[in-house]
Specification:
Blueprint (H helix, E strand, L loop, with lengths): L3 H10 L1 H10 L11 H11 L4 H13 L8 H5 L3 H5 L5 H15 L5 H6 L2 H8 L7 H10 L12 H11 L7 H9 L5 H13 L3
Length: 202
């Protein structure tokens, strides 16, 4: 079973979360190891949108380039009006263009990014317009598959904690960190289950 060691550890370390893990079954996290320019670009487009809305916009955006995610050069050569025309906001367009400029300068090479520690990678990509800690953490989890990432500012994580531990309102950050301390060094897997818990019975 994928992540058997991590799941067994979490069940023993935290029986309350463990009960939810047993109910939900195997962990379905599958890091893509995809090209950073594309992965970070899609993360920008997902910001502050529902998954369905973002997927629609991404589909329209890729259609500008024959159905594929563009190269950095192709994106930078595309007129702003075309990019804005598929439903991308001005702020996100500028972020994508800055990302493309970083990629052209060779600052988004996967081999180099893989060598960076978690916090160092967050600091590295945080220099790009429109990319903050949350986007960097999504990249660490869903692209690189780093094992011990806990997205403290993620609403789904907050909702999952609230439901799992019976809080009446979203927990404070210090409360979240107290819970997450039990899950080290596998906070990524715990986070995946908290997202599933938050999505239940929507």
């Amino acid at each position: 079973m994928p992540y058997a060691k991590e799941i067994d550890y979490l069940i023993k370390a935290d029986p309350i979360l463990g009960k939810a893990i047993k109910r939900l079954g195997p962990c379905g996290l599958k890091p893509t190891q995809g090209e950073p320019f594309k992965e970070l670009g899609e993360s920008i487009l997902y910001q502050q949108l529902s998954g369905k809305a973002a997927a629609t916009i991404i589909g329209r955006f890729k259609n500008l380039f024959g159905g594929q995610w563009p190269s950095a050069g192709a994106l930078l050569a595309t007129p702003n009006v075309k990019i804005r025309g598929v439903g991308i906001s001005n702020a996100k367009m500028l972020a994508l263009q800055d990302l493309a400029e970083h990629a052209q300068r060779g600052e988004l090479k996967m081999a180099a990014l893989k060598k960076l520690a978690d916090d160092a990678l967050v600091a590295h990509v945080d220099k790009i317009r429109g990319i903050g800690r949350w986007t960097a953490e999504m990249f660490l989890i869903f692209t690189l598959g780093r094992p011990d990432i806990f997205p403290l500012d993620d609403l789904g994580i907050q909702k999952g904690l609230k439901k799992t531990f019976g809080y009446k309102k979203l927990p404070a950050k210090r409360t979240m960190l107290k819970h997450a301390a039990k899950w080290r060094p596998f906070r990524t897997i715990a986070s995946w289950y908290l997202w599933r818990i938050a999505d239940e019975n929507k």
